Amino acid sequence: MILRDLPDLPPRPPTRANAAFRRWFYERWGRENAVIVYRTHRAEFVPHTQALSIKRAWGGAEDYLVGSQRLAVSDSHGLILNDGAHYGARISSPTPVTSLAVFFRPGMAEELAGAAAQAASKSLDHGPSIARAAWHFSEHLRVFERGVEERLARLLAGVCHGETDDAWLEEQLQGVLWAMLHAEPGWRERSRRLQTLSRSAHAELQQRVDRAADFILSCYTEPITLDQIAAAAGLSKYHLVRCFAQVHGVTPMALLTRTRTRAAERLLRETTLSMAEVLARSGFGSRQTLFRQLRRLCGAGGRELRQRASRLALSLP
Questions:
Q1: Residue 249 pLDDT more than 50?
Q2: Distance between CA 313 and CA 87 in Å, rounded?
Q3: Alpha-helical regions (H) of the chain
Q4: pTM for this structure?
Q5: Which residues pair with 63 in a beta bridge?
């Protein structure tokens, strides 16, 4: 199933016009692979239990409401939600947001995990039969590894260019899922940096550090403090700073500054928003702070970044 527009689903009211689409949609939804791509200022999907999925967004943020958490997927980071996750989603943005949501058919991750654990030569003995292996992804905002990001970009390009074939979609989603499975041990490896704890304390602390990162990545446009980040994680700010740096390689406030700077850089390169709007949408409180961070990270100020982007646009065919 490939959808290239915002699906006409609740909370939109039922009408005669959308009745046929909804019957068709619900007959197939949750039983097969699905990709939804759309571009909009505003959207809302009521909470529902979904299949394994991977989320990306460009041009702004899309909020996923998972339990009591708000996880904001945007240009810099995406999200994986496991089979059986219950969540809603919404977009409310002054500029259009491009959303990509990929849903994998039931059992696909277990099949590929089983195949990954089985040597290719074994298939000569067992034929098409593949043992399934249980698999669970970490449900936290993350910068996707290059292999995952490249396959998502390839998938998005194909969908936008009109691909409709289900066999093509199966192959593309196999590639995405292989990359996800390959990247996940590296994602889990971060927690091994907390070597001084018992296994149970180790896992709990990892979850709390990830909650702090999710809070930063979801709320960076707001004037958040270290105390608020620590409260979101349920840790003292002293333990948070030390453990966060062990896992992520930077302190919480350094991640916050880096996230804001990357957002401002993208807005300056890709939009004509005023400087006041860039400041508001990237979370910086002053031009001086923004320019200082841009020069530190990009080696250029706001005007130079826009001039570079303009020269690049003029050079394109």
A1: yes
A2: 39
A3: 16-28, 108-116, 123-126, 146-160, 166-189, 199-219, 226-233, 237-248, 252-270, 275-282, 287-298, 302-315
A4: 0.78
A5: 72, 90
